[in-house]
Structures
1.
Amino acid sequence: MSMIRVEHLSRDYGGGKGVFDVSFSIRQGETFGFLGPNGAGKTTTIRHLMGFLRPQSGKCFINDMDCWEKRDRIQSDLGYVPGEISFFDDMTGTEYLSFMEKYRRIGSDSRKKELLDFFELDPAGRIKKMSKGMKQKLGLVSAMMHDPQILIFDEPTSGLDPLMQSKFVELVNHEREQGKTILMSSHMFEEVERTCDHVGIIRSGRMIAVETVEALRERHVRAYTVTLSDPATARAFAKDFGGKQDDCRVTVSTRQSLEEIFMSYYGGEKDA
Amino acid sequence: MLNATLYLRGMKRSVKLLIVLCAVTTMYVWIIISMFEPQMAKMLDGYVDLMPELMSSMGMVAGATTLIGFICSYLYGFVLLVIPMLFCIIEGNALVAKQVDDNSMTSLLAAPLKRRTIILTQLCVMISGILIIDIYTTVLELICANHYFPGELDAGELLLLNVGLLALHLFIGGVCFTASCLFSEVKYSLAFGAGIPILMFVLKMLANMGGNAENVKYATFFSLFQPNEIAAGDHGALVCVAVMFVGAILLYGAGCTVFCKKDLHI
């Protein structure tokens, strides 16, 4: 069953900006990486899913509910971390979290403490004085403390240091094991590769590929067979380059990183 | 329908502003009422004779012989209009447009609440603030008048006058709130939400100066508030009060509807 469904979504901002006829769907329990450069339409698509924007044409659904009509009901089981995170600056982190708990009417089953421990975050200070990374962690805690089944992260790891980035990957993998449906947009190919099973690539407002991470990799595997002077050299060569040895011949394959795959979609012609 | 947590947060945030504005109001009301003396009234009338344009632009006219006439002239022409107007402008902008502009509205919308609940709660914060200012002013005036001139001020007349004042403040609040709902950027919200009431007030001051400028009074909604006539229970003046109340309701309704339907780029 598809948990998140976008059907022919279009919003034209003029001057080639916007999203055009975007369609994809994410099944329950799937982790979907939404890749694209700045201004490609990732955030615009997410704003439609959140019910902030009404589609000019097309529709989107979460849990079979229309994202614009039923936005308040959808939100009860959804956690969202915006790309440009902004809280009430006059509050401390602690005040903000307890405000959100009461505002959302999260009872005693709040995961706040568990998440704060996980991210090693002390939310006592004023939000205004927090670093970007701390704000990002605060946003993640706030988005997940009601234990939603659907998670939407808009560039969740920007501002986190590498250690926290792997911590985040760990968290996503843990949530995925719990059967959560996750949509995350990202510039970080490595993190998408490590966390997602499906990838959608968007460019200039149009989806140019929706595939599994595996399929994407497979399509970009290249194999080479080299012949060496004697079996001993061949064995050493195979060992060093991870190839398959057959007497004097060694077959090595290279996998393009997701980044290179990505560049093959973007590189070259500017408009298409 | 409403969210108690959000309401309490809004009230807590506006407390500081309310205290400052009420303090300023207290100072003015206390001084002006204590000044009501035939002797002092004569002195103020002397100022009016000396510089009629300036005094009347502030809504101050000569010949206020009763206490209610005196305060209508010296309080309800400027101080009690401008201070609550300041509140409407600041609060109206802060409750909606500012939070959309700085993205903090995202936290409120990414929750299982209808936009209607959010905007009605914000509206309640605004109206509560206006009510607090006006009720405080009324009580203050009664205490003050009772302290200096027991039996001089008719409580009924004052109450009627302040219902009229409340209607005006709610209407100004309506302009600010609707502008705040309409625009997603603070600069536009303030251009209209502060610009319109201030322009209208300047026009009122112009019209007060009399002469050729008097016709300007038809161009400003402040003319709907006629303190002397309201206190006297004049029919036409009370109809104007009703018009302001209805206008305020329509403005709030429009603002909320716009907010519920509009695209939010947050």
2.
Amino acid sequence: MTSFDADANDAQLWSDVRAGDGESFGLLFDRHRDRVFRYSLRLVRSHVDAEDVTAMVFLEAWRRQSRVRLVNGSIIAWLLATATNVARNRLRSAARYQRMLNKIPRPEPAPDHSMSVLDGLAAEPAHRTVQEAFRRLNRRDQEILSLCVLEELSAPDVGELLGIAPGAVRARLMRAKRRLIHTLDVESLKEPLGETR
Amino acid sequence: MNTDDENPPVFDESRSAAFRVVLVDVAEIGTEQNRRFRVVQRAWTIVPASLLILGLSAGTFLRSRT
């Protein structure tokens, strides 16, 4: 049951997790933590919120273990898709996992370098506008754009993850891009009104 | 060009280590945390299913009276 093999693939580790091996879950967390965190950081506004979302994604994986889908032997696509849902429902998810989240120490209020980098990027009008437009999209559009464009997963992989055909992934992606462009147009029309200086 | 690519933000190490301990504890069979989580997990399955059955039964009952 217990492999403790850091080189084991996700499928082996996940099988051990389902058999009740905690360390294998720890290894999966070590392997995918930062990617899920960076993905979550696009969906929420702060570093701490993105860490909480990442934590909740892994708790969701354990809670819904029978529903977890491995794509090409990897759990990462499922974790990223779940991050989209957790980020959108994070107040409800946080209430569910409050006791677990309380075990993670809250960071000291100190200047956060990564946030200053992000703030710097967000301060660029173009980046800020795209980020705002993205946040206004519905969950399905955010999910498909994040998986296909930002995470560069293939249409067959995303299709396998979401349980739809690759053609449907491409069609959904096209509609999501169209809505993003429309939202960007609306945002750019608002921009001059917002800038009073 | 993009500083985000050169120095990507990462999960804070101390928070990550603390959370990893929680995760291992939750997943490790036989621990107190695992037992509690399984109880809650079962409740998340049983309660909605019970509510659904109650709702369907009530609906069937009301329909049979009309």
